[in-house]
């Protein structure tokens, strides 16, 4: 889970049923983290991403808000800001503890067809997601994944992590892509070789009606407990996009706004030039973290696919290939 990275918490809030299938997920870093972002595809929906450019003033963020609702869902970040401001967490702009501006970059995915028109996340969703934040991450049809779809199937929230030396790299993805995450002729996930997912991959074609997938977007975050600059953190986000491309085909289309944030909490320094590997030590260590970021993001996307349940009229993987979850 992304919360295996110390200092990272995750909260969800969603509404499913009675004309609703949407929600918000918040990745909280109460002590702050160096932030960066990488955006691909032709249809992004984002907020406060320009401040993450390496040359700009603000270095650390307090949370990342991921939401359904297309551009309307960006309002969920207002609730995240309010929750943080009530706790005096943010960029100091005055002499008093409460005089802060919480830094909350956000991205949204397109899930509007899964709800009745007008049912989309607002500031209350972001606030409630913060209230629910903890070190345990529910997966599937929750939070920003409540109304997600990936190709012909239901998408959802997935998370994964791995240890690289003394560092932990974690990822969280809201899987919602124009491309397919599964070979529909066999039922095998494209990124199945990125981990042991506890399923018996089937070998039969899907029986699925065609579904329009013209507006989508996979959004997520990758976190590490290393001390990185904003530019180095962006390399982590860039690498995580490689994991996205391994998990869906095609990826980064004109109809996707794929956006991945990176958070570096700074608990462990990267090696410097004084060691036995000289000037190559730091970039080599960063490269290892980037390779891990791609792997964990791909795994997170498969977890989101497998954990999803049918909602908003989109069938889940577990309903199309139930035999994958049977013993043996």
From TrEMBL:
**MF term (GO), any:** aminopeptidase activity
Extract the InterPro entries matched here: ArgJ-like_dom_sf, Peptidase_S58_DmpA
One Pfam family hit = Peptidase_S58
Q: Which family does it belong to?
A: Belongs to the peptidase S58 family.
Specify the protein name: Hydrolase
